[in-house]
Amino acid sequence: MKRKIKPTHKFIHFLKNPSPTFRDGFLRFDVYVTGDRDNLSDNMCAFLDYLQGKDAESKLTKAIEKSVDKAIERSDWRVEYMTLNAKIMEEREEAREEGREEGREEGREEERIKNIRKTIVLLHRLNFKNEDIIREISQTFEISLETAGKYIEDYYNELSKNN
Q: The whole model's pTM is what?
């Protein structure tokens, strides 16, 4: 029974010897099957066609197809693949969730900095002394007096740039 491989991605990951520079032990190659084929061998062009879902025509792609068919028929490999695929999908979802959380954290921090700056502007316009502004910022936003002082310094630097 011939099975046609349908590509699901525009790039493919090949497993290679673990590299100390990658935590997961994978070395990744992006293969763009529709890219420029100048200077590629006939075998490589046939392989790229095969990855796009075209029939195996060269010796190389026929051998690959035969190996793929054998692998598909091995139920123990199928279970291992499904398990590995499920783990990969779970790790990707965890990574996406971590990324979303980092984004939310960054957004909260940016909003906090905006609020600190707005408070400085307001207190400055109300003619508060710098020491009082620093103390108020420190207490309101639960930051050190030193950090509050740096915000005041940044505020005055910005004022001098704009004038």
A: 0.43
**Model confidence at 115, in pLDDT bands (50, 70, 90)?**
very high
pLDDT over 60 at 71, yes or no: yes
**How many whole angstroms separate alpha carbon 82 and alpha carbon 26?**
19
What is the amino acid identity at position 88? I
| d(C-alpha 16, C-alpha 28), whole Å | 8
Residue at token pair 């905006």: 114
110 token code pair: 């940016």
